């Protein structure tokens, strides 16, 4: 037991459940942490079995041109991460090493590549589906899981810069998409309660950037476009959003030319599970020793 550890993050690091890298929000995961996270991920699959979802696993990088077209930079320029790389000749290489040696900024010579980091698991999906033509009758459901990047360094272990997001994404008519979201708001609460965590659902907004962002946030709230399932992780007063239920209306449908079988602009919604956040909530509530977690919780996760 670490006697000087005050915060959950300190305790997780002292017990080697998370591994420090020297960067806030960037951690190594121990076998114990991964075991919990993957078992919760498998539990999601059990709850989502009836969705008959198409499974796609995108890498954590996405096509930059498609990212630009998605509109992400209009709303969250501060959170985006780009992949840069060396693209010079021998002379440039020598100069890079010299700059590095002198403690200068060697990154100044890096060039943006055609890859950016995925900000959410569903961003790479919409253009890929739109390319396939009209949706079939009854639309489609996809099952995604990807490491995501958001530039939001923090000492709060629940606010990472690189984390995994599991998602189910629904594309179809407004009615189909709304029914999907409602069903996942119900299942989400059941799922979280089944692992012994307290749940609350509230209307929410994304952290839109700048002055114009305030209007977008208000709009999103007024129209009930985003709900979050909140669980206390590091604070009881300010519980953490562990699941999100987003209704995009026809935003992605219009952006990507996604149409229903009837030729209408498709509506979309997604449910996103923050896998690290749920794992952290489990450690925070049930303790760092998974062997002493309540029998009921152990049974649900480990069978
Ligand atoms: P969002 O697209 O913001 O609704 O995110 C979907 C889910 O990802 C949220 O409900 C969180 O559980 C999780 N998430 C979002 N941001 C972070 C972060 N910085 N660190 C860890 N998990 C996150
Ligand atoms: Zn999504």
Counted by DSSP, the helix tally is 11
Structural class: alpha+beta
Specify the biggest β-sheet: 7 strands, mixed
The small molecules bound here are: adenosine monophosphate, zinc ion
The whole-number mean of residue pLDDT values reads: 97
What's the helix-strand series? HEEHEEHHEHEHEEHEHEEHEHH
3D shape: globular
Q: What is the β-strand count?
A: 12
For the largest sheet, list the strands in their spatial order: 3-7-8-12-11-10-9
Strand content: 15-25%
Termini separation: 29 Å
Q: What low-confidence regions span 5 or more consecutive residues with pLDDT below 50? A: none
Q: Mind telling me the C-alpha Rg?
A: 21 Å
Helix content: 25-40%
How is this structure best described in words?
With 303 residues, the protein is of the alpha+beta class. The chain has eleven helices and twelve strands. It has a seven-stranded mixed β-sheet with strand order 3-7-8-12-11-10-9. A hairpin with an 8-residue loop joins strand 10 (226-231) and strand 11 (240-249). The model has no long low-confidence stretch (mean pLDDT 97). Zinc ion binds at residues 120, 122, 167, 169, 246, 270, 272.
Essential attributes:
303 residues, alpha+beta, three-stranded antiparallel β-sheet, binds adenosine monophosphate, binds zinc ion
């Amino acid at each position: 037991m670490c006697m000087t550890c005050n915060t959950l993050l300190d305790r997780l690091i002292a017990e080697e459940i998370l591994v420090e890298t020297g960067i806030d929000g960037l951690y190594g995961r121990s076998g114990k942490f991964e075991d919990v996270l993957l078992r919760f991920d498998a539990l999601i699959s059990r709850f989502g079995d009836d969705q008959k979802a198409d499974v796609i696993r995108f890498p954590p990088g996405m096509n930059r041109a498609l990212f630009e077209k998605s509109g992400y930079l209009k709303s969250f320029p501060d959170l985006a991460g780009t992949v840069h790389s060396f693209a010079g000749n021998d002379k440039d290489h020598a100069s890079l090493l010299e700059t590095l040696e002198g403690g200068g900024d060697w990154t100044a010579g890096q060039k943006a590549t055609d890859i950016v980091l995925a900000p959410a698991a569903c961003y790479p999906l919409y253009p890929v589906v739109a390319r396939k033509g009209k949706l079939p009758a009854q639309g489609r459901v996809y099952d995604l899981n990807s490491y995501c990047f958001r530039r939001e360094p923090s000492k709060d272990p629940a606010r990472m810069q690189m984390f995994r997001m599991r998602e189910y994404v629904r594309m179809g008519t407004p009615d189909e998409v709304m029914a999907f979201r409602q069903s996942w708001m119900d299942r989400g609460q059941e799922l979280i309660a089944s692992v012994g965590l307290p749940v609350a659902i509230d209307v929410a907004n994304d952290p839109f950037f700048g002055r114009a962002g305030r209007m977008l946030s208000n709009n999103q709230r007024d129209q009930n476009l985003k709900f979050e399932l909140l669980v206390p992780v590091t604070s009881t007063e300010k519980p953490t959003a562990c699941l999100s239920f987003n209704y995009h209306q026809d935003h992605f449908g219009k952006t990507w030319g996604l149409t229903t079988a009837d030729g209408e602009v498709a509506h979309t919604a997604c449910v996103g599970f923050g896998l690290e956040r749920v794992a952290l909530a489990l450690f925070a509530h049930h303790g760092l020793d998974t062997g002493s977690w309540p029998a009921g919780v152990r049974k649900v996760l480990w069978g």
